[in-house]
Design brief:
- The protein is elongated and about 55 Å long.
- It has seven helices and no strands.
- 33% of the residues are buried.
- By secondary structure, it is mainly α.
Length: 192
């Protein structure tokens, strides 16, 4: 029984080493970028930071946690399934909090792209983790691909959102109030 359990998880070991390491490095880099741009940008509200800044770090950490969960030496597949399902449920709850912060903040008017990358795709990702966790004991091969795909999607969401925030800050906030009447006015107000 133990060999059957470790075999499907062991086949993913290299994948999770790569993905988990990438997520850890990007998390650290995000902290460095935030410190470096702090002098450039005007202070953002708590709600806008919680809506657009913090989730990027959380998604990177979620990928790291996902990698750790799938690399742990589980004795029964039902244990890892429970952990993945709980992780997906927690992610869904967190994304709902992000939605609440995005709607409450007044520093920036989100556009469709923001709703897709900050709310819709994370909701999809964490829902997929919840479902994959529930089905993992019965459909381990398929669910492991869903979990791996979700890890990549969350990594790409974090990369996109970090890049979007950093380029916005570098290109728009440096220009000051004049930028809000140009292209920034079309896109929305400043974001963290």
């Amino acid at each position: 029984m133990e060999h059957a359990l470790t075999s499907p998880l062991a086949a993913w070991e290299s994948f999770y080493v790569i993905v988990g390491s990438s997520a850890a490095a990007l998390t650290g880099l995000q902290f460095v970028v935030i410190v470096l741009v702090a002098d450039v940008s005007a202070p953002a509200s708590v709600h806008s930071t919680r809506a657009f800044g913090t989730p990027t770090v959380v998604h990177f950490c979620a990928v790291l946690l996902n990698s750790a969960l799938l690399s742990a030496p589980w004795r029964q597949i039902s244990n890892v399934a429970l952990a993945i399902a709980a992780f997906g449920l927690a992610g869904l709850g967190y994304t709902m909090l992000v939605l609440r912060h995005a709607r409450r903040q007044t520093d920036y008017v989100p556009v469709l792209e923001d709703w897709i990358w900050h709310i819709a795709l994370p909701l999809f990702s964490y829902a997929a983790l919840l479902v994959a966790g529930i089905l993992l004991p019965r459909e381990s091969a398929t669910c492991l691909f869903i979990i791996g795909g979700t890890a990549l999607l969350l990594l790409f969401i974090g990369i996109h959102n970090a890049w979007d925030s950093v380029t916005y800050i570098a290109l728009q906030r440096r220009q000051g109030p004049a930028a809000e009447t140009g292209e920034a006015g079309k896109r929305g107000e400043p974001r963290p």
